[in-house]
Amino acid sequence: MRHLRQLFTRRNWWAALLLLAEAAVLLLRFAGDFHAGQAVTITPDLLVPYTEQALNDSRGVQVQDYTGVFATTRWIDLEPGSYRVSVTYVTNGGDGSAAFVDEIMPTAQYDPVTLSSSRTRTVFSLWMPHACENAQLQFSSNGGVMFVTGAEIIPTHAWAYVRFLTLAAFFLLADWVLLVALRKLPFPIKTLRMRYSALVIAGIVLVACLPLGFDYLIYGHDMSIHLTRIEGLKAGLQAGQFPVRMDPEIVNGKGYPFSLMYSDLLLYPAAVLRIIGFSLQQVYQLYVLGVTLATALVTRYCLKKMFGSEGIALTGTALYVLSAYRLTNVYVRAAVGEYSAMIFLPVVVYGFWRVYTQPKAGGRLAWLPLAVGFSGLLQTHLLTTEMAGIFAILFCLAMLRRTFRRPVLPALCKAAGAAVVWNLWFLVPMLQYMLSGACRISGKYDASTLRDSAAHLGQIFLMFGQGEGYSQSLNVGLANEMPLTIGTVLGLGVLLFFCCLMDPGVRETDRNALRLGGWTLGLGLTAVWLSSTLFPWYEIYLNVEWLSKLLGKLQFAWRFLGLATVLLAVCCCCALALLRRGKAGWLRPAAAALALLTLLPAGLLTYEVCRNSEVVSYQSLAAIDNLADQVGGGEYMPYGMADGSPNAWENTEPVFPAELVVSSYTFGTLEAGFDCENTSDAPATAVLPLFSYPGYRLTAGEGAMLGEQDGLITVTVPAGYAGSVQVQFVGFWFWRLADLISLLGIAGMAVFCRRGRRQGRPVRP
Q1: What is the CATH number of the domain that holds 717?
Q2: Which of 75, 242, 424, 637 is most buried by its number of CB atoms within 10 A?
Q3: How many domains does the chain have?
Q4: How many CB atoms lie within 10 A of CB 188?
Q5: Beta strand pairing status for 671-678 and 145-156?
């Protein structure tokens, strides 16, 4: 702030003038963009048959038992801007599709959408960077009867908001560079060593994010699910939920508890950008960039704290961020939860190191990194949390004599208590749904499936892997197998650590690095063992049923490769730390060799990913029109819904019995209501198109009762009732209590840290 005050003085009048000029440009451009575009209504007379089999009348264009493009619009003149395209149609017996065609300048970005037989209207987004005088909408049929009746192209303000923010960000960056170059503002990184460090971090992030530099998304296995989570979070925020519990838009508006069962905390910035107007693929690319940068910065920070060496910290950061398993999670699997959790695995390792070896140096908050690490895991990926918890228990039991002594035991208790309190807002509703059986939790796994998903030992340490494929059965071998490897480089790092152990002159130079390396080596190789075919998964399946079912919740044995990656990367750093003290001349060649053997496989893997990926564009949820893709395997479908239930996806209409005379019906965001009269002498039951999850309440309709049928909400209206009935998702009072406790816990921690700094007490994390 002091530098900013000094900047805006009479001597620097030109800086104020520059900012005023930029503000004027921003406002004028925003005003022009805000009113950009014009609405276009496509009436039946503007629809043209594209094939002889299609018929055109006053209602639209119709085709029967035809596959391919059957209708198109006349030429459409569109200005640059963002648009919402709405297509009305009727189909019977088959789905169709709609596409935007701009043959002269094909730079338009849009959602290729399905005209589903379960609806009569579909909406998708269109982004026009340039004006076009001869654009068209084309409609295709996949059989059955398809009847397109019209369309609307309506301009939106997303164009103005996105261009305003991007230009404002550019101006801010350019101004900062100019002021730093003119020495009007200090460069934030003061020492030359730290500038080189920042450059290395930027290089690591750049290499890891090269597949983001395309105008389309590199498609991964689970991408549609996680993009749907972002859209559901956006819709929940727009509906007034905070925190979001139930995603209101997906599955035809029936509600789905993604946000309740799978924490979305890190996705909130992406959802806010979606509300502003950024496309779905843009916010996802920004999310991957942000997670990669956070992983690099957090890893470098933790390793620097543990080893006190910038070079070792940067080498370990490269080993971890560019590891084959992390890149596979990011680009091949698009496993958002798992690669986001990898931000916090180094924090957990650092937290245990701090508690067990540096409790006094950490001051009163030596337990804080451990609490933050496990909180981050809880907020990103529960399965990674469970695996880290298993290894934490193993380590604490192995260190039994120190675990149950001061100051270790109090620190562990504080970390566990803080993590629970901070995350109570998420844990309470999630555990309620799990323990009450509200969700089906599809997929029955046990140790036999873990055995079949295990990786071969040679496969785990391969240097290169193809940038595509799936997890195949052991019987298939590596044919079409995704890269399930931690890389040869980590194996060589382990060998380097063994070489240091064999040399007494090196082994005794750094006892802390020796102990840390021994523990990370042992636990890392244990993780490799658990992920490999060498572990007796099948014997557990045959002999210990309860353990088989418990471990089966992890789904795939190769998930342990994430823990193996972080542990063995730290072990490699320990080897470098021993060399630094014992044989310093070997340090730089060893670090350079490890970095090179990391860059080569990472570069090849990212190239293979880009080369093999299909070109996909996602502007909005309309691009994920397949309802099954929106929820994946339907892991959190209502428990009462049978597999293959006809009401699971398509049905969007309520079912009213004949004796219930309904005069009006409304269906909104996680709510439904109707005005009715029960003309019979017995209660009458209506079935609403809302999934039957706990948290729905009757907000109108005295005497009516909520129930469940085939996973859908039912309302039983008493005999002789006449009036309104309203059902709405409101949650529970104790959810809000948990929210308050978590908020107070986080606020109390922040106040405690701030007071400690003011009073000069050590508050180092």
Answers
A1: 2.60.40
A2: 637
A3: 3
A4: 10
A5: unpaired
CA nearest to 708, candidates 437, 457, 343: 437
C-alpha 492: how far from chain center: 32
User: Which positions ≥6 away from 315 have C-beta within 8 Å?
Assistant: 572, 573, 576, 591, 594, 595
pLDDT band of 412, cuts 50, 70, 90: very high
End residue of a domain, out of 616, 639, 673: 616
Peptide bond into 689 cis (omega under 30): no
Distance CA 187, CA 181 (A): 9
Residue 643, pLDDT score: 56
Alpha carbon distance 250, 253 (integer Å):
5
Q: How far apart are CA 680 and CA 657, in angstroms?
A: 11
In a domain, 411, yes or no: yes
Q: Share the mean pLDDT of the chain.
A: 86
User: Quick one: tokens of 532?
Assistant: 């490999």
On whether both 245 and 363 belong to a single domain, the answer is: yes
Q: Is residue 187 part of a domain?
A: no
Pair 354, 289 in one domain = yes
In this structure, the dihedral spanned by the alpha carbons of residues 255, 257, 263 and 267, taken in order and rounded to 10 degrees, is -20
Beta 660-668 vs 696-700: how paired, if at all? Answer: unpaired
Run of H or E including 707? strand 705-709
Query: Does one domain contain both 142 and 216?
Result: no
80 and 228 belong to one structural domain: no
CA 340 – CA 333 distance, rounded (Å): 13
Written in H, E and C, the secondary structure of 426-454 is: HHHHHHHHHHHCCECCCCCCCHHHHHHCC
How far is 91 from 66, CA to CA, in rounded Å? 12
Q: What angle do CA 221, 223, 228 make, to 5 degrees?
A: 140
pLDDT per residue over 270-279, tens digit each? 999 999 989 8
Q: Indicate the residue among 586, 616, 646 that finishes a domain.
A: 616
Helix (H, G, I), strand (E, B) or coil at 259: helix
Same-domain check for residues 342 and 251: yes
- Phi first, then psi: give them for residue 316, nearest 5 degrees: -65, -35
**760 occurs within a structural domain:** no
Instruction: Give residue-wise pLDDT tens across range 127-163.
Output: 888 888 788 888 888 888 888 888 898 999 888 999 9
Could you tell me if 401 and 707 are in contact, meaning their C-beta atoms sit under 8 angstroms apart? no
CATH number assigned to the domain comprising residue 108: 2.60.120.260
* Mean local confidence (pLDDT), 59-76: 85
Task: For residue 761, tell me if it sits in a domain.
Answer: no
Cis peptide, bond prior to residue 407, ω within 30 of zero? yes
Say whether both 150 and 69 belong to one domain: yes
Higher-confidence residue of 5 and 636: namely 636
- Residue 614 is given by DSSP the state -
Q: What pLDDT does residue 271 have?
A: 94
pTM over 0.90: yes
Range of the domain at 63: 40-159
Asked if residue 666 and residue 605 are part of one domain, the reply reads no
Strand positions, DSSP E, 116-176: 121-128, 132-142, 145-156
- Kindly tell me the burial class for residue 495, based on how many C-beta atoms sit within 10 Å of its own C-beta (0-12, 13-18, 19 or more): exposed
User: What are residue 532's DSSP bridge partners?
Assistant: 455
How far is Cα 345 from Cα 110, in angstroms, rounded to an integer? 38
* Whether residues 585 and 678 fall in one domain: no
pLDDT in tens, 699-725: 888 888 998 888 889 999 998 888 899
